[in-house]
Each structure stands twice: as C-alpha cells, then as structure tokens.
Amino acid sequence: MKHPPRLPPVPAEAGSSPRLDSVRQALRLRVLRLMVVIAGLAFGWEAPAPVWGEPSAAAATPDQSIPVDPESAPETPSSGLGLAEVVAMTLGHNPDILLQAQEVAGKQGAVQQAAGPFSPQLRSGVVKSRSIRPLTMRDRFGMGGRTHLPTTTTNYQIGYERLLRSGLVLRPRIEFTRNDPDLPGLIPENRGEVKFELICPLARGRGANAAPRANEDAARLDLEASRRTLEAAVQRSLFQAIDAYWSYVGSFRRLEIQRAAEDRARRLVEETEQLIKADHSPASERSQVEANLAAKQADRISSENTLRQDRRSLGLLLGIDAAAIEGLGPPLDAFPEPASLSLPVDLPPALVQETLDRRPELAELRLQARSAARLTAGSRSDERPRIDANLTVGYSGLDESNRFAAYFTPLSQRLPGLNVTFQVTADLPLKNDQAIGLRRQREAQEHKLAIALERAERDIRTGLTLAWRSVIDSLHQARCSDIAVRTYQSAVENEKAKLANGMSTLIDLINMEDRLTNALLSDIQARVNLARALNSLQYQAGRLVRRAEEGRPAADRPAPGAPLPPPLPPEVGTARYAVDLEALRTVASATAFPPTEKLP
C-alpha cells in the first residue's frame, strides 16, 4: 500500500489568520486519510487489532507499587542501594529478561510470517512474442499461396488473489490479448476477458483446521506463551536479584559486626597494655589479647572478601558493568522484623489455587499445549485427499481494429454473453507418509507437554508448601536468635562487672564477647534466612510482579478454552510490571495471607 502524498502548503489568503490556515490544513489531511482508509477496506486490507495481554496506557498502578520501564531504569544508584533500585535495574538490564524479550520479538515475526498465506496478492504480467505458424492447404488458398503466417502477440493481464481463512480462494483477473498478423490487409484481433474464479476445497485445506489456519493460530499461541515465558523470566530474575540483595545486606551487616569486634579487641589490647605497664596485670595476658585481636582481624578480612563476592553476584544479576558493580553503595533496606510478621501455621488452600492461576510457567505450558493441538489438527487435515471445486465466471469481448485504443476497448465491444466453467480436481495420494509422520510427531509433542504440565503443577505445589514451612521455621529461628543476642549482651555486661570486681578473668570476658559476636552473626544469618524465605514465598506464590492486565475484570481475560487472541500488530512493546515494594520487604498476613493460627 502506497502512503498518501504529502499535501503542499496552502498559501495564506488575504485576511486569513495562521490559526485558520492550520485548521484548513488539518481538515484536508483528515479527508485524505479517510479516503485512504475507504480504499483500503475496498481492497480487503485489514487493520491490526489489539492484542490481549498488551499493557494499555490507561492502566492504573496500585498504591505502594512502582511501574518500572526498562528505558527509565537507573544505571547505578546515586547513594546507597535499596530494593527500589534493585527492582528497577533488574527489569532494565538483566540479561535473561532482555534475551527473553528478543524471543518475544522473534515470535512476533513468526506470527506475521504465519499470516502470510492470507495476505492478498496482485499478479500482473506483460508478454510479447512473435511466432511463425505453418498454414494448411486451405489457409494457403485464402492467403494467396503463402506457406506460413508470422504473428505478433501481445498479452497483458492483472489479477488479484486471496486465500480466505475458511479455505476459499478468490481470483479475479482481467486479461487482454492482441494478435497482429504480419501481413498487409489483415486486421489485428484485440480480445479482452474478465474472469472471477472461486476455488472451494472439499477435503484438505477446508475450515478452521486447515493447515494455514492452524499454523497461524499456533503461532499466535506461541507468541502468548513466549510472553508468559518473559513474565516467568522477570519473576525468576527478580527473585534471584532480591535474594542476592538480602545476601549482600547480610554480608554488609556481618562486616559491621566483625569490625566492631575488631575495635573491641584493639581497645582491649590497649587497655591491657596500660594495665601491664601499671603492674596491675601480668605480662602473660598480652599474648591472649593480641591473639584475640589477630583472630578478629582474620574474621574481618574474610567478611570483606565475602562482601565483595556477594556484591559481584548482585551486580551481575542487575546487569550492570564492572565499574558500576564496584560502585554499588551500602544497602538501605533493613531486614523484616520477626515481631511484625504473623502467618498461619497451615498453608491456606485458597493460596494454592491462586498460585496455580498466577504462575506464568503453567500459563506458558497451557498455551503451548493449545498450540500443539492446533498443529496436530492441521496435520490431520493434511492427511486428507485434495479435492477442489473450481467455479469460473466471466465474459469475453472482441475488437477488430488497428487503433491503439483497441488495446483497452475489447471489454466493451461484441459481448456475446456470460462464460461459466465448473470443474472438480482431485489429488489422491496412495499413502501420505509425510503428513502421517508429521502428525505423529505433533501428537507426541502434545503428550510431552501434558506430562510437563502435570510435573510443573506438582513442583509448584510442593515448592509453595516448602516455602511456607521455611518462612515458619525462619520466624522461629529469628526469634530464638534475637533472644540469644539479648541474653549474651546482658552476660557480657555482667562479665565486665565481675572482672572489675576481681571475680572473673580476662579470658572469661574474651570468651563471653566471642559468644556475643557469634550470637550477633547468627542473628544476622537468621534475618537473612527470613528475608530470603519471604522472597521465596513471594516467588513461589507468583506475587513478585503483576502484569498490567491484572487490573481488568476477570471476565475480560481469556480463559484456557476461550477464542484465540486477535491478530497482532508488527510492533512489540516492552511490557511494564508493577512491583509492590512493601510486599517484598514484609509479608503482612493482614494484607496478603489472612492468618488462621498465629505462631506462638
């Protein structure tokens, strides 16, 4: 389709204003566009329909959620690193998400390719030939004894062909032929013919299960499945990035504890040295406190190395370069507080069913199964014999003239009547091994997808149960470690008082501080485990992100047995996902999982 020509600028008339000129120009453009649309409808051009699943510009974003656009995602946080930056950079730069987005773009091209057989085609051609035909004895007598007749033939035609999705084929055609004998006195024959041909398949290629129609439907379903795969990649990448973020937070907090322990050990060395110089402590205690300081320095160095490794792991998941990884700031988000969390002991059955409805992996497999079923139906259709009914209706005209206009006037001269042709053609293969073999392959693919779907449902059910129990156990662990920290803090204060009163030794104080440090480290690990368990529960429940269409009523969303989505436009937009940061930081049972029985 040719684009409409640009209108030349309209010269300003006397007394006209620039605003009036712009209004006239806009009206002319609207009229021209309307004419183009009407012409397109007359020739059968179809406008692309909207696609289910594409986010709309008017989609509302709920409170406490951030819609993340990859183009607007920050490269690196300016100061510190929080969950908001982690989510934004993951959606914008994670390689797995970007790769899967290209897979979606490729599937979009596959849909356009599968719709190719239904695209209308214009066929035209011009042929000019010269032939020398030997004449019979009777023709020789009429032509003065000539033995042959040289003839110049000019043929030009234009036709339109379109395969409908029902299987019918439309072929209107106009053809002109001019036979110009190369002899004096003979008048050229100018013949014109109009034909409208309709081909109706009676067996193979008919109806909704014809191979071209089934292939197009399967391509659309594969595209929708690839979008669910993209959503699964987003969920998985966010889960990994948030999991790595909490590990990074834990490493940072452990390093702070190790540095504080090293500072305490250094102060103890200085205080002990002063006591030794004042003859209040024996010199043998110097080796104990120095050994304690060296051990704390070794632990601090190990924690720094662990922090660097966790920073690198997080940076790779965020998709940023090496310089940006080294520039990642300290974490800004605190661990979830165990005291603020309350979950049911038993997994709610409603959550299991909701998870099965939300997980994109299951939606992907269901769409792939529907796609495989459509391909199998197309293969069964190809096993049928080829029987076509062909109806051709048209008329012919003749104009015997040497004028140049005779090239185009035969269709209005000497029209004897309507020409009708009806024929039935059959192609009956004795054994269609190609179609049978393809059908068996696609049936096996259907069975494989059914097995994969059953296994995926089982994995998700067990994974959700395990994630739920992990949160319960992590809550118990975090509360116990919190009690241990408070108890050891009191014990250290008591040990310092006993040492000041001569009721304890320096080694007892060092041992008690070591126990406090280990309790603090265990408490950090317990909080890391709790944060990661909550993140895993969100991931297993399919709640890390929400698609834009989830805000629509359920009646507007296609069910597994609903009709196929409409044809897709050639563009592939990057989807936007809404992420609830508060749900990532805490899982408050009052808003997410209504409790039936709280933990003690």
Helix and strand topology:
Blueprint: H1 18-42, E1 65-68, H2 83-93, H3 95-114, E2 121-134, H4 137-142, E3 148-163, E4 169-181, E5 189-201, H5 211-277, H6 285-318, H7 322-326, H8 349-358, H9 360-382, E6 386-400, E7 419-427, H10 433-500, H11 506-540, E8 546-547, E9 577-580, H12 581-585
Query: What is the number of E strands?
Result: 9
Shape: elongated
- Listing every helix as H and every strand as E from the N terminus to the C terminus, the arrangement reads HEHHEHEEEHHHHHEEHHEEH
At CATH level 3, the topology of the largest domain is Outer membrane efflux proteins (OEP)
Q: Please tell me the CATH architecture of the largest domain by its name.
A: Up-down Bundle
CATH class of the largest domain: Mainly Alpha
Please indicate the count of domains: 3
Number of helices: 12
Strand share of the residues?
15-25%
Largest sheet: 6 strands, antiparallel
> If you average the pLDDT, what whole number results?
77
In CATH terms, the superfamily of the largest domain is Outer membrane efflux proteins (OEP)
Relevant terms:
alpha+beta; Outer membrane efflux proteins (OEP); elongated; disordered C terminus
